[in-house]
């Protein structure tokens, strides 16, 4: 499983970082930095981040290695 | 310290002050910000976008009651703990628990209900060729949707609407003279919210309220009972007035652009989302979003002192010609940059997906059923402020039949 953020859509609101702080973070310039891969145990947090994004900019690929 | 740049002054406390005035346009052309009675007004799109999400600014509304002489009581206690004013860890913990309950996934199943409500209300007056939109559509629609969301008996809508409006007085400049009533409304709504939580605990219903009760009970200690009740009051209060007023503002905006109303009517499926965004962009209920500098910092050529209030002018930034072509016109086919009608950053509006969905259903229903839409000369509007809207909105139309 893997996530990608559509960088054109993303407006750097940072709500994903509230849901899944281990995987999403706003850098010092307020731009989003994130990790594409995650462990199964973080799936709930990642799904909450996807649900919470006001731009629905986070896409999960369940089949990715 | 370097001298601050000289900029124009806008008298935003004047009841005749209008965001869509020539004065504001000229001020926006002249500089990215203006001085106001309280702090500075940020006028341009680029700067609003940057400052709205800046971690150096806090939401800054905690002081509101105290600024008007209210330093204790039920309203103040409630307000100091609402998500709207919380910051940092406490804010993030509660947002993390409630955000997913308001996701598109959770709201999609409610569309059919929104549709029934909209059609039912239009049926009540469509034969007449005229109606008073604020009380005959906007208020019942917004309030009854909130009842559906929280699983409140829809027959209670008038009472809920009244309590929400009374609490709304707490955000007006007359807060002090109304505080006894406002405190009483908080007491009543607290009792109501407690009974809702009790009933969901006994028999969960799969609605948003049940999800929130779950969030509380599964994660014991993460969302306390007190926080849950505080949140329910906030949802009732914030969910009704905003949608109600935004509906009236959207109808007014479209009444000035009949070609776009016809376009929406011709293909609501395709255009309803764009119709909502364009209405929010050119005629938002929140004319500004307030922030406060948490520390002193430099932004462009301006030193912003700690404690400075910044008003980010939403309508002004969303009609900035530097960011939008033909900015004052609704254009359902245009690709537009995002507006900030729902605020932004960590305080981005929690209920925006609900609002987008229900306003979208309302506008496409109205467009497909009514044409020749006109707003009466006797419409009454609240002054431009953090929250504006229609007091009375008489409309005339022809039924498409
Ligand atoms: S919540 Fe969405 S818009 Fe905001 S930073 Fe995360 S991905 Fe970007």
List keywords for this structure.
A: alpha+beta; two-stranded antiparallel sheet; 2 helices; globular; B: 401 residues; alpha+beta; 6-stranded mixed beta sheet; 3-stranded antiparallel beta sheet
What does this structure look like?
The complex is a heterodimer of chains A (65) and B (401). Chain A has 65 residues and is of the alpha+beta class. In chain A, the strands form two sheets. Chain A has a two-stranded antiparallel sheet. Chain A has helices at 15-19, 43-52, and strands spanning 2-5, 24-26, 32-34, 58-61. Chain A has two helices and four strands; from the N terminus they run βαββαβ. In chain A, β2 and β3 form a beta hairpin. The mean pLDDT of chain A is 92. Chain B has 401 residues and is of the alpha+beta class. Chain B is built from 16 helices and 13 strands. In chain B, α10 crosses α11 and α12 (225-255) runs parallel beside α16. The termini of chain B are far apart. Chain A binds chain B through residues 11-15, 18-19, 26, 30, 47-48, 51-52, 54-56, and chain B through 49-50, 53-55, 92, 95-96, 99-100, 103-106, 338, 342, 344-346, 348-349, 352.
Order of helices and strands of chain B: EHEEHEHHHHHEHHHHHHHEEEEHHEEEE
Please estimate the helix content of chain B: 40-55%
Helix content of chain A: 10-25%
Radius of gyration of chain B: 21 Å
For the largest sheet of chain B, list the strands in their spatial order. 1-2-3-9-6-4
Quaternary structure classification: heterodimer
What structural category arises from helix and sheet content of chain A? Answer: alpha+beta
Beta-strand percent range of chain A: 15-25%
Separation of termini of chain A? 6 Å
Order of strands in the sheet with most strands of chain A:
1-4
Most extensive interface, chain pair and sizes: A-B, 16 and 22 residues
Query: Which regions of chain B are unreliable across 5 or more consecutive residues at pLDDT < 50?
Result: none
Count, helices of chain A: 2
The number of E-state strands of chain B comes to 13
Number of distinct helices of chain B: 16
């Amino acid at each position: 499983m893997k996530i990608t953020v559509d960088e054109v859509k993303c407006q750097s609101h940072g709500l994903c970082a509230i849901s899944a702080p281990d995987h999403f973070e706003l850098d010092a310039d307020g731009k989003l930095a994130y990790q594409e891969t995650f462990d199964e145990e973080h799936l709930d947090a990642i799904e909450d981040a996807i649900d919470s994004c006001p731009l629905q900019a986070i896409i999960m690929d369940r089949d990715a290695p | 310290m370097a001298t601050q740049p000289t900029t124009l002054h806008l008298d935003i406390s004047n009841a005749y002050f209008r965001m869509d005035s020539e004065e504001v346009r000229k001020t926006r052309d002249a500089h990215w910000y203006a001085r106001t009675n309280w702090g500075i007004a940020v006028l341009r799109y680029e700067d609003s976008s940057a400052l709205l999400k800046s971690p150096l600014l806090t939401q800054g509304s905690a002081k509101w009651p105290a600024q008007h002489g209210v330093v204790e009581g039920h309203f103040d206690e409630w307000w100091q703990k609402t998500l709207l004013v919380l910051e940092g860890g406490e804010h993030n913990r509660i947002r993390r628990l409630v955000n997913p309950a308001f996701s598109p996934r959770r709201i999609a199943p409610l569309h059919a209900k929104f549709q029934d409500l909209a059609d039912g209300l239009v049926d009540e007056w469509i034969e007449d060729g005229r109606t008073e939109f604020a009380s005959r559509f906007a208020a019942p629609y917004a309030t009854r949707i909130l009842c559906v969301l929280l699983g409140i008996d829809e027959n209670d809508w008038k009472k809920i609407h009244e309590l929400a409006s009374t609490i709304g007085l707490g955000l007006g400049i007359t807060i002090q003279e109304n505080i006894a009533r406002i405190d009483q409304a908080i007491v009543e709504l607290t009792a109501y919210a407690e009974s809702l939580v009790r009933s969901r605990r006994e028999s969960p219903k799969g609605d948003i309220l049940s999800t929130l009760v779950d969030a509380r009970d599964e994660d014991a200690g993460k969302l306390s009972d007190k926080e849950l009740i505080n949140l329910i009051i906030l949802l009732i209060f914030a969910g009704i007035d905003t949608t109600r007023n935004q509906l009236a503002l959207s109808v007014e905006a479209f009444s000035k652009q009949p070609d776009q109303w016809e376009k929406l009517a011709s293909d609501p499926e395709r255009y309803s989302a764009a119709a909502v965004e364009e209405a929010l962009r050119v005629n938002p209920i929140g004319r500004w979003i307030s922030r406060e500098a948490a520390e002193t910092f430099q932004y462009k050529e301006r030193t912003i002192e700690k404690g400075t209030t910044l008003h980010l002018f939403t309508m002004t930034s969303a009609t900035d010609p530097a960011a939008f072509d033909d900015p004052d016109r609704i254009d359902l086919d245009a690709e537009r940059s995002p507006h900030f009608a729902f605020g932004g950053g960590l305080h981005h509006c929690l209920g925006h997906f609900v609002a987008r969905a229900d306003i979208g259903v309302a506008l496409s229903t109205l467009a497909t059923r009514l044409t020749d839409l006109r707003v009466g000369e006797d419409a009454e509007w609240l002054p431009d402020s953090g929250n504006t809207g229609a007091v009375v909105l008489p409309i005339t139309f022809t039924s498409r039949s």
